[in-house]
Amino acid sequence: MYVVYMSRKMVSIREAAEFLGVSAQTLRRWEREGKLVPDERTPGGRRRYDLARLRPEQFHAPEAARRTIAYARVSSHDQKEDLERQKQVLEMYCARQGWTFEVIADLGSGMNYHKKGLKRLLDAIINGEVGRLVITHKDRLLRFGAELVFVICEARGVEVVILNQGEDTTFEEDLAKDVLEIITVFSARLYGSRSRKNQKLLDGVRAAVEASQC
Q1: 106: Cβ–Cβ under 8 A, 6 or more apart, which residues?
Q2: Which domain covers residue 138, as residue numbers?
Q3: pLDDT tens column, 124-164
Q4: Number of C-alpha atoms within 13 angstroms, CB side, residue 21?
Q5: Does residue 193 carry a catalytic annotation?
Q6: Residue 168 in contact with residue 145, Cβ under 8 Å?
Q7: Are 94 and 151 within one domain?
Q8: What angle do CA 134, 120, 77 make, to 5 degrees?
Q9: The pTM is what?
Q10: Same domain, 177 and 158
Q11: For tag attachment on the chain, is the N or C end more exposed, with fewer CB atoms within 10 Å?
Q12: Buried (b) or exposed (e) across 183-197, using 16+ Cβ within 10 A?
């Protein structure tokens, strides 16, 4: 009787994560959830995975099932016409590519991370439901922090398409609104403070920004 032993290639959590196209943190979470448990641990407690058992298709939705999402945003109600133009540009582009897509639109500052549409978009990306994100300009996503969202997209295998068709005509207007929002936050923190000098400075900046919009 002959017994044939199949050699196993055991890899570290970093190598396993790279093979599956996820982060090491995701593998740790899957272990807690019982979704993917390490095949063994070293005497030092390090996780080891049998490369032959790892199957990326078990942990990623098929490409056809992953959606294309087009995201549009403006800062205020008086920019609704621009929001409609953004949506039309995105719809026409996605349709020309032959993609099945969904448009998510937000009305709120680029400094606001709690917009309903943005949260819905991020949830879908993190849950592996999105295969492609399409936006007209980077700042339509977020004023600051868009790069972090792009890193998350890369980690989840999401293609990011930025159309950049010409200049963003609302850039200066949006930036002014965001600066005023920052000033409002700082003014609230300084309210009742003895630092009249700081309050006077903020009032001066506010006046300058408002004047630039005239």
Answers
A1: 71, 72, 73, 74, 115, 116, 117, 118
A2: 63-162
A3: 998 888 999 999 988 888 877 788 899 999 888 898 999 87
A4: 14
A5: no
A6: no
A7: yes
A8: 80
A9: 0.54
A10: no
A11: N
A12: beebeeeeeeeeeee
